[in-house]
Structures are given as structure tokens and as C-alpha cells.
Amino acid sequence: xxxxxxxxxxxxxxxxxxxxxxxxxxxxxxxxxxxxxxxxxxxxxxxxxxxxxxxxxxxxxxxxxxxxxxxxxxxxxxxxxxxxxxxxxxxxxxxxxxxxxxxxxxxxxxxxxxxxxxxxxxxxxxxxxxxxxxxxxxxxxxxxxxxxxxxxxxxxxxxxxxxxxxxxxxxxxxxxxxxxxxxxxxxxxxxxxxxxxxxxxxxxxxxxxxxxxxxxxxxxxxxxxxxxxxxxxxxxxxxxxxxxxxxxxxxxxxxxxxxxxxxxxxxxxxxxxxxxxxxxxxxxxxxxxxxxxxxxxxxxxxxxxxxxxxxxxxxxxxxxxxxxxxxxxxxxxxxxxxxxxxxxxxxxxxxxxxxxxxxxxxxxxxxxxxxxxxxxxxxxxxxxxxxxxxxxxxxxxxxxxxxxxxxxxxxxxxxxxxxxx
Length: 421
Known about the structure:
Structural class: alpha+beta
């Protein structure tokens, strides 16, 4: 159905934002106004302007959800509104629909070049939770620090391990971040306060929560998917030396709270429907009934990380992995998160944790790619990297390809600036 659709908006065959995608985002116009929109080609279908011109009338319960500065209200409105809204937008942008196509005045109001706006965070993020759900990544890290025989902790195959991150430092792609200062412990001597020396990226996929659940009630695995509004690329920056000294006994703290970069466009699960796949076998050991799920809840999405130093003209790919390398799915993560009755709220952000594949070139962090810095990476211009240096820009990319179209996620990039000492 979707693969046969075409739009009157022109774009290349390899474009990441075809009519089959239609991701949502928030942006600031050249005049400083806050609008919501949908990406199509290199343009934006301005949802705010479309609503003000009556184009979204009758397809959602309350069209004021499209007149906000963030997507929170639309996220809260649930799938009963997400589905007809996507249908209406698809119809308006389809090649045979003349409503906007043949009305020059209307077209000028609702079709905006992406290059003319500033993208902002798509939601006001109340809470952020990061999981640790790639078996390959957890095995690699465990092997480094505990040995192969004790790589996975006893609980890992029984529940989706996670921790509560810091929502205030989630930033949109393109936002530079300063190298963090922190307390580190040298191999010899006492702890000291200094710039992080082992700065790392993590290839992750984030997802935004929709309606949520009341305090004390659980989200069941059967309905968990209806609580997921959509996904974004993520780089959950990590200060490995700060984290190593601080994390016992309560887990990550300052080593993870200084910055998390996400892509601005939220790709819906509807857009990823053709890329569903069966996940990992979870029978040895068998997961508890509340987490058991036989549906196709994993997704075949290629992901990569690239580095561009200040001496390079273009980024160089250093890792290629896939979202399918997730032992615990988004549905299972959300179900477990709320199993205590924890209330999720619209716009809350959850993340996969570092996604590593089965081969060394598919590892999702510098920690793994260089194996704790013992195997430096040589960039195309001859520079070496064990971890991220000041001036480096890291790019996370994602793409899902089907016959006749490609689902892209937009850019997730961030440049590291020197520490503020």
C-alpha cells in the first residue's frame, strides 16, 4: 500500500523523507514563530499553518494539538488521532490531490523549505530513561571488565536493565556540547577533578511515549505499542572515566548527565511497518509472562556512527550496526518500566541503550571499537582516535530501505567543544 504512494512534492528516489515516512517535528520559523510540521522531501508540511487554514479539520478530536510549540498534546491524544492525522496528511500530499498542489496561495503558506527554519526539540521531555538492551554490547562491556565467563550480570536475561537519565540535557541535533569536567580516579594516586579524558558516543534509538498511564496502573505488553508515538536517532554521550569511578553502587550519574543528542524528526511506527522483524529467542531462560511477546516487535533499521575532526573535509564512518540487535524490545522496556505502577507521561523519552552488532565494525561505542583504547582507530586523514577529541563532530545516521522507498531519520550530530575549567 504505502510503497506505491507518490507525492506531488518532488524528491530524489533515495530521499529519506518520502511520502511513506512523514515524520513529525517542531521548528521555529524565520519570523520566530513556533510551529509543528511533517518532513516531506526537503520541505516541511507546516501543520500549524495547515490547521489555521482548515486542512486538518475533522481528522482529530481537537485540532489545537497542532497549534502548540511541541508535540506533547498530539502525543497525548493517542493512536485514535495519530492514525487519521497521518491519513489526512498523506492524502493532502499525494500526487493526485489538488487541494494544496493547485492552490498557489495555500501552498505558499503550508509548504516550507527545511533550509529556512530552525529545528527544535520535538517535545518537552519530562523524564528520560536509558536502557541497556543490546546483548552484544552488554557482553562486550562485561567481558572487558569482568571476563567472558561473567560478562552478563545474573539479571540481564530476565529483565530490561535501565536507569533514569537526565531530561534537561537532552539537546537537538547540531547543538555543540562542552567536554565535561568531573571526578576521575587515576590507576595510581588519589581522585582528581579534571576534564574527561575518555569521552565516548553511543549509537542508540530513542522513542517518545504517547498517552501514558495513571500512577499505580501498568502498561501491559499487549497494549504497549499504542503507547509509542515514534522514534528518533540518539547519541547518548558518555564520560567513561567519570562513570567508572562513580557508578558503584548506584549506577551512572555525572558520567551520563552532561548531554544526550537526538534527531529532530520523530519517525512513527506506522512508517516502519514494513521493517518489522522477529526479535531474539527468549526461551533460554524463558522470560516471565508479563514480558512474553511473540509479535514482530523488532525493526530492521541500519544505523551508523561517523567522526569528522576539524582537519577533515567530510565525516568518516567508523561503525555500522542495526536496530535489530536488541534483545529487549521497546514494548518490553515500556512494559517493565511501568510494571511497578510507575506513571509515564506524554513526551517522556526512553532509549535503547548502545546498539552493537556481532562483528567488531558494528560495535556501537568507542569503548568497544577500540577495546578500551587498546586498538586505536585510524581516520582517513591519518589521525588516530581512542576516544573523542575536542573539535570532533559525531554523526549518528539511520536508514530503513524497502523496494521503491527509503525511510530516513534526519541528522543526529554534535560537536565537542573544550571543557570549561
